[in-house]
Write a structure and sequence with these properties.
By secondary structure, this protein is mainly alpha-helical. The chain has a domain at about 75-145: Orthogonal Bundle (Arc Repressor Mutant, subunit A). It is built from 6 helices and 3 strands, in the order ααβααββαα. The chain has helices at about 50-70, 75-90, 95-100, 105-115, 140-160, 165-175; strands at about 90-95, 120-125, 135. A 3-stranded antiparallel β-sheet has the order 1-3-2. Strand 2 (about 120-125) and strand 3 form a beta hairpin. The protein starts with about 50 loop residues before the first helix and ends in a 7-residue tail after the last helix.
Amino acid sequence: MSNKTPELNRTPRRKPRPGPASRGRAVSRAGEPAAAPAAGGPKLGLLPALLGYQLRLAQRAIFDDFAAAVGELDMSPGLFGMLVIIEANPGLKQTELANAARLDRSSLVPALDKLEARGLVARRASVADRRANGISLTTAGAALLKKLKQRVARHEERLASNLNVAERETLVALLRRILPERR
């Protein structure tokens, strides 16, 4: 079984943005802080102390905020990442994109098909190797990516709103140290 994550290509569930009182905190479905159970709810045992549990709650909150940020542009974090990589590497081969996006071929092809069906990317036979496809953004893809980048920048600002610059840099550095051999 691959440790690569095909679920990144799914559009996250959309939830309303939290109000000002809860902005910046992960919240549960009931609106309570994620680490604390709802009044009278089940105890969470050791879960709040587990790094994996806290990362999963953060991931859910991030995906929900991402979905709200991109709204009607209908883009998942995984597809956005692919567009960014393609923009930075016009003519990139599918295998190179799969490696850069940390996807296996079975996940990459359907994701590329989605982007191509929306007219955002084009696959063309590589000049250097006619057996391989080079992938580039279309004009529509470049225009959409420009809008997405603006919204994702605001999303990133919300993610880091409770952190100063040094804390943000430390958090990124620490996250990079978690299981680097599996990335």
